[in-house]
Amino acid sequence: MGLGARLRRLFSPSGPRGVRSTGQIRAQRGGYQSMLDREATPTDLDELREFVASRTGVEFYLEPETTATDTTVAAVAADGEWIRRRVGSARIASRLATELGVPLYDAGVLGYPAAMRRYRRS
Fold it and tell me: What are phi and psi of 59, to 5 degrees?
């Protein structure tokens, strides 16, 4: 396989699921890992996909990488239910949001929706 084909395979969505491997996550985040945290995994991305598929009105809120935590996304449903998962980079979060057809906001700029603060897990 030539270099061009390998790069297309690595960076193009594989069917309807997009980024599917730890190698793809590492390649898009620059190949480094925060020393104080685990890196994002395909399982993290699958959990976000499942959340979007099973709830209505989901929006993504991007949270930047810190010295202790990898880049994360808080997925917030219309009723305020939410989950937070590692995604590896803003680029991966953007691709995932596009793949799933959900809006992606910068939590540092917009903050979080009021419904998220009001939501109480049963």
Answer: -125, 145
* Closest C-alpha among 14, 35, 13 to residue 91: 13
How would DSSP label each residue in 4-44?
A: HHHHHHHHS--GGG---SHHHHHHHHTS---TTSPPP-HHH
Which one-letter DSSP state was computed for residue 50? H
> Which structure tokens are listed for 88?
């590896």
Tell me the pTM.
0.73
- Across the chain, which has 122 residues, the per-10-residue mean pLDDT values are 60 55 66 63 95 97 89 96 94 96 96 89 68
Six-digit token pair at 68? 């202790």
